[in-house]
Amino acid sequence: MFDSGVGGLTVLHECLVSLPEEDFVYLGDTDWFPYGVKDTAELRERIRAIAGLLLGDGAKLLVIACNTATSVGEDVAREVAAEHGVEVVPVVEPQAEIAAAITDSGRVGVLATPNTVESGAYRRALEEQGRELEVTEVEAPDLAPFIQDGSPFDEGVLEMARAYCAPLKRAEVDTLILGCTHYPLVAPMLQRILGRDVRLVSGGHAVAAAVQRTLERSSLARESDGEGDYRFLCTGDVESFRELGTRFLQMPLGDVGQVEIRRLH
Description:
Elements: E1 2-3, H1 9-18, E2 24-28, H2 40-56, E3 61-63, H3 67-83, E4 87-89, H4 92-102, E5 107-112, H5 114-119, H6 121-127, E6 134-139, H7 143-149, H8 155-170, E7 175-179, H9 187-194, E8 199-201, H10 203-217, E9 230-234, H11 238-249, E10 256-258
Parallel strand pairs: 1-2, 2-9, 3-4, 5-6, 5-7, 7-8, 9-10
Helix pairs in contact: 1-10, 2-3, 4-6, 4-10, 8-9
């Protein structure tokens, strides 16, 4: 499993709860954070290298726990995974499936990074759900960096969130896809701004369910014989990853290994 930073730990948390018997390796590419504003061509090569590193270590399934990485590089990850005979679970499609199923009005919002919105990945995924939906997408370039920094919430952050939510409120969405795995940490603030009747769809539950289905379908699910292991890699500062990651995972991280991502070509 990999993400641009610690946001994907919200996905890992749900996987650890839903699939406690499985072993997980999580890579946080903190040295390259944030993905949401990076050059997409360079980001695709970065994703290719990360996928190669994780799959070369013997992973039986690759989870892209990052909305931007899914949006701009899912096909690249799948190419690498195919070389290893491994399936890929992205984060966009599972969220779109849930959002389309639970919206009453058909008005769905997407709050995401600029690269994710510009890719059109969520719009395409929602169009494939077989329902006529009115989709409102909002770019939130500053939200993930704020969360990643672990900065304290203050009035300025609240005003930033209100500005991002304003188009969603005008569109009267009844369902909002949190299009970045960092966003669940500010879900209470978004819920207060949008109102309790707006359903928030995060990546964690959706991806955990998709991982479970994929493993069972492929006969790769592990027998329930106790708790599996989980370990962590990051490309940036280990201590800051451990400190902030504990907040996201809501569990101890333990040892964190530092790795360097080398370009494959």
